[in-house]
Write a structure and sequence with these properties.
The structure is a single chain. The protein has 12 helices and 19 strands. The protein is α/β, with parallel strands linked by helices and 397 residues long. The strands form 4 sheets. A 7-stranded mixed sheet has the order 13-12-11-14-15-19-16, sandwiched between helices. Strands 3-2-4-1-5 form a 5-stranded parallel sheet, sandwiched between helices. It has a 5-stranded mixed sheet with strand order 6-7-10-8-9, with helices on both faces. Helix 2 (53-59) runs parallel beside helix 3, helix 8 crosses helix 9 and helix 11 packs parallel to helix 12 (343-355).
Length: 397
Amino acid sequence: MNRLFFIIGAGMGTLDTLTGEARRALDEADAVLATARLAALNAKAVICPFGELAARAVQAGGDTVAVLVSGDVGFFSAAARLREQLLSYGDVRLICGLSSLQYFCAKVGVPYDDACVRSLHGRAGSILGAVSYHKKVFALTGGVQNAQTVCRALVDAGLGSLTVHLGENLGVETERIVHGTAADLAARTCGDLAVLLIEHLDAVNAAEPLRDSMFTRAKVPMTKEEVRWTVCGRLAVQPRDTVWDVGAGTGAMTLELARRACDGLVYAVERNNEALSLLDENRRKLGGYNVQIVAGRAPEALEALPAPDCVFVGGSGGGMRRILALAKEKNPAVRVVVTAIALETLEEARHALLDLGFANIEVSQLAASRGKAVGPYTMLTALNPVFILSGGGDDAE
């Protein structure tokens, strides 16, 4: 017997947001399974715990079984997992529904074709990168990361003035839609399940490389752009990475890393007060709100930080070996890059990487020159040569 399973997107969980195709599939089904919230959509529906939907569908009588899921089957839905669980028992058809993104953006009158979409519901992660580099972010919230918590994170990062639209209990009688700033909504209580639409008109382009001239520097040393771009490539920074920048200085390397870890967080560790002030100024000036500034001396200031995916050490303050050891202890597969301008620092870093068991250790020297107009001619002026050392952890290839 070739059975047929419908997995139906139930929209907002109301009859009004159920599509005509979904209604026809429910009428055709011999059995209907749903969680308690969605069971009222069909008289045949049997209430079933979410985690048992697939098993109960297989056990249900009849040739055609329908399973209701909230929202749309292709939008942060359990439908894909249910489909995999049911495929070996018959044909599976997905019926799309109205997503919270479509419903909410229509309610507030804002198009969503240019929105960055993220889910924080029951997930780890931060919204700060998405908001830093996109003018419009739609976020599903809930659990530990509810709407109020997310808005507080925006406020703490210096984004409290952003316009935020909040939607709770979408589609039902208790629906609530609120508009305000992130600071306004951070002070309000909200339900566990809510969506946010965050507008950041001054968001920067994460794909734009940062030039030295963009930074406020004063007398604090700064890693030059040619070195920064090489280091980022050697570190292979991924969008969701957690990154440590040790000895962050003015934040030039920090902000370059933050644009590449555009959905992650960069922890900028610095002990110099003047540098800390410049770091914060550059963070705001260049829109890198996914940078967390950590004041203190490494490695002590690193102890409380989350495990890094990659680490850049631009200044160790004499703690090179302990910094690298701690990074590898927190994540045995960590990727690291160290820069050095002195031969002694080069040897210290090389021996530390070897002794700590880092794999694929590479050493390069970068010697760049820049053109400078001298009358009708262009003369090349050499920058200080820099050694770049890199290594991977236990799982590096």
